[in-house]
Design a protein that fits this description.
The protein has about 475 residues and is α/β, with parallel strands linked by helices. It contains 14 helices and 20 strands. Strands 14-15-16-13-12-17-18 form a 7-stranded mixed beta sheet, with helices on both faces. Strands 9-8-7-10-11-19 form a 6-stranded mixed beta sheet, with helices on both faces. The protein has a 3-stranded antiparallel beta sheet with strand order 5-6-20, with no helix packed on it.
Length: about 475
């Protein structure tokens, strides 16, 4: 296929494309068919070291590059991404599985991070004040933190890259990007686009590897990386935080989620069902923001569940490249098995299946949209991030019950609530222990908003006006009055 053929298959280091030092390659497969799309270079620890050396060598010049120049490179890259929407969308669908309509939406969403941070690059500020005792002027400047290691997941191959790359480049930081080995083609395409947009050699380096632990740990312990931004599981995040401790690396962590979704008795059920469908089924449920635990007031639970099941059952499951497909495959068989095991466990403990729950025959990693009710408290699905198209519904009687259940988790990334009572909406939003709240909506992600969580869902924020702060250090200069 042309879009796959045209993507560079090598590592991108120091502005050039090169094979892995070992000569190894890894297979990129289509989860809709199980067939191999291509082979790409599989980096070793030595390749990772070379990438860091290239980033370090480019750091001083890139930091000294005028903000307007950095801004214009990002803006050109934005324009190139938008111009190539169809090719990038198809590439994502082939390597990750999401339907083309969702892939196109991701291209628009992901590109927007480059446009947003192209505008923020020229707005990095500081300050000048007088000390309270009048003896010194307090001059505050902001400087790039230095070479960064960015680690991205497979579920949003383009947007997770641009959300990290955009602010890092805008701030004046150089980068080593390690994308997920399941979906490297989009990241390699992004590197080619940035090079075409005029990004100097060595500022961005892309290292694809199946040996994440072997490549990443030496980089974090080597003393040259000054910033880690990671999106992935909390389990891996804890390991990386420990590795960053030795050299006190600044970290941003967007980790696991277990998002609650609450439907109160006064909710507009049409809005609640559609909002739940978005919060649950975006990206086939393979999103850290996906509604994982759905709590519905007892008085409307039956009607809500029936409506949601009808909507879920009507979704078309199939290859994301086929017209009309609503739900593509999960990323791999391990992801499909995990979702099915959670469903079987819930059913074994008394849950009722309203739709789905059966493994389909044939090739591909498909799983049907599934709705369960009557979830027992001890079911694993309550405490496990599903990462699949499974809606698990429980009931509640009082507002306090709903909030207590929603907060009963170590995670705190996103939460959703549906109510037409303004006082309740604000009150519950303030009580929910989550970094982001969807109020009468199932979609919270926006490049102009700070994305991130609390508790074990992570550290720091991406996007919004604060996103660039993660890549900047404050420097204070004392200037005597009269000097």
């Amino acid at each position: 296929m042309t879009v796959v053929r045209d993507v560079p298959k090598q590592l991108f280091i120091g502005g050039g494309w090169q094979d892995a030092e070992s000569g190894r390659t890894l297979s990129v497969d289509n989860p809709a068919t199980g067939e191999e799309l291509c082979q790409v270079a599989d980096a070793s620890p030595a390749d990772g070291r070379h990438a860091v050396e290239a980033a370090v060598a480019a750091q001083a010049a890139w930091a000294a590059t005028p903000p307007r120049v950095r801004s214009e490179i990002l803006r050109r890259a934005y324009d190139l991404i938008i111009a190539r929407t169809e090719d990038l969308a198809l590439l994502m669908t082939l390597e990750m599985g999401k339907p083309l309509a969702e892939a196109r939406a991701e291209v628009a969403y992901g590109a927007e991070f480059f446009r947003w941070f192209s505008e923020e690059a020229v707005r990095i500020d500081g300050g000048l004040t007088t000390a309270p005792d009048g003896r010194n002027r307090l001059l505050v400047t902001r400087q790039p933190v230095g070479p960064c290691l960015l680690i991205t997941p497979w579920n949003f191959p383009l947007a997770m890259g641009t959300r990290k790359i955009g602010p890092a480049l805008a701030a004046g930081c150089t980068i080593v990007l390690k994308p997920a080995p399941q979906t490297p083609l989009t990241s390699l395409s992004l590197a080619a686009i940035l090079k075409e947009a005029g990004l100097p050699d060595g500022v961005l380096n892309v290292v694809v590897t199946t040996d994440a632990a072997g490549v990443v740990e030496p980089l974090l312990r080597g003393g040259k990386i000054r910033k880690l931004s990671f999106t992935g599981s909390t389990q891996v995040g804890r390991i990386l935080l420990a590795q960053c401790a030795d050299t006190v690396i600044r970290t941003s962590m967007e980790l696991g989620g277990n998002a609650p979704l609450i439907v109160f008795d006064d909710a507009d059920l049409d809005v609640a069902v559609e909002g739940t469908l978005v919060a649950k089924m975006r990206n086939m449920g393979e999103s850290c923001c996906a509604a994982n635990r759905i709590y519905v007031h007892t008085s409307v639970a039956d009607e809500f569940a029936t409506r949601l099941a009808d909507r879920m059952a009507a979704l078309k499951v199939g290859d994301g490249t086929e017209p009309g497909t609503d739900v593509g495959p999960l990323i791999d068989n391990a992801g499909r098995s995990k979702a099915h095991d959670l469903v079987r466990d819930a059913v074994k403990r008394g849950a009722t299946v309203l739709t789905g729950a059966e493994l389909p025959e044939g090739p591909g990693c498909f799983y049907p949209p599934t709705v369960l009710t009557g979830i027992a408290p001890e079911s694993a699905i309550i405490d496990t991030e599903i990462f699949g198209p499974v809606a698990a519904i429980r009931t509640f009687d009082t507002e306090d019950d709903a909030v207590t259940a929603a907060n009963d988790t170590e995670f705190g990334l996103a939460a959703y609530l549906f109510t037409q009572n303004l006082d309740r909406a604000l009150r519950v939003s303030e009580r929910l222990e989550s970094g982001m709240i969807g109020l009468n909506t199932g979609l919270v992600s926006n490049p102009a908003a700070p994305f991130g969580g609390v508790k074990q869902s992570g550290l720091g924020r991406e996007g919004g006006r604060v996103g660039i702060d993660e890549f900047l250090e404050y420097k204070y200069i004392a200037v005597p009055v009269g000097a």
